[in-house]
């Protein structure tokens, strides 16, 4: 069967660009993958890892042979990259980007590249680089498309087919709204992680704080482990929407500060936060029905996951999702997800009966 696309170009061979390329290869969606990057080492890795069939250190006439181009450079470089590509692009080719900020990119490139539609796969990792790319990163991901009245029908249809063929879920949102929403659920958490780590780094008790920092602190600040330069560019590009989000957060923190003297009101706020957190989709990068969590304390001994799964299986309780949260020298924790509240409570009974602490 003929692939969905002929020659496809990936412009920027990092985690996302590499993952898109591997997804295209794994699903036989492209006849040939071309990769461009200004970093020769990234191109060498792309060839060695089988991410690309051909690599290019320079733009040129080869761009005109592409049926589809995907801009995966750092968000601050996307507009300039698109402008440099435009003279070579075939008038019938499709173009998209995978940047996390959309308004300026879409505004500049929709009239510059032929059949351009901005997009943003809601997937990623703190581990950057093409060596960490994998096709599964995009599977079940929510992939935002940001059309405008200027978007051509060909672009809208073609990029939507690309997203669906890669196993992701297309979701259309206007560019400006996308940036406001992402500022609150992605860019603001990154700045919070930076802020919390700065509190530790600049404290006179830094060494003691580092020693005491537990799994909760590490989980909360995990996103600060990503590429500082790429993250800096991401939040700077979205600074106006992010400033609005910071202003709102200051108000919320002020309210919580006042509630420290009102224990019952603080409890209600905490209960609301728990309900909100518990209603989030369990499996990252996916659009799935609500699930119900249990956290199981486990000793650090072989066979614990198998013992838990066996106990629940014999009781007829189906585990829908599982995640190892922490493992230390003496104990750890596992999060289990269940499809219904009833199954979760049944699992609580079963695991408590066989000796596990469950929360």
Automatic annotation (TrEMBL):
Pathway it belongs to?
Amino-acid biosynthesis; L-tyrosine biosynthesis; (4-hydroxyphenyl)pyruvate from prephenate (NAD(+) route): step 1/1
InterPro entries per the record? Answer: 6-PGluconate_DH-like_C_sf, ACT-like_dom_sf, ACT_dom, NAD(P)-bd_dom_sf, PDH_C, PDH_N, Preph/Arog_dehydrog, Prephen_DH
Is NAD among the key words of this record? Answer: yes
Q: Domain (Prephenate/arogenate dehydrogenase): give its ranges.
A: 6-290
Q: Does the keyword Amino-acid biosynthesis apply?
A: yes
| EC number(s) per entry | 1.3.1.12
Q: What is this protein called?
A: Prephenate dehydrogenase
Provide the reaction this enzyme catalyses: prephenate + NAD(+) = 3-(4-hydroxyphenyl)pyruvate + CO2 + NADH
Q: Which UniProt keywords apply?
A: Amino-acid biosynthesis, Aromatic amino acid biosynthesis, NAD, Oxidoreductase, Tyrosine biosynthesis
Source organism of the structure:
Thermus scotoductus
UniProt-listed GO biological process terms: tyrosine biosynthetic process
The EC class name is: oxidoreductase
The UniProt GO MF terms for this protein read: NAD+ binding; prephenate dehydrogenase (NAD+) activity; prephenate dehydrogenase (NADP+) activity
The residues covered by the ACT domain are 293-359
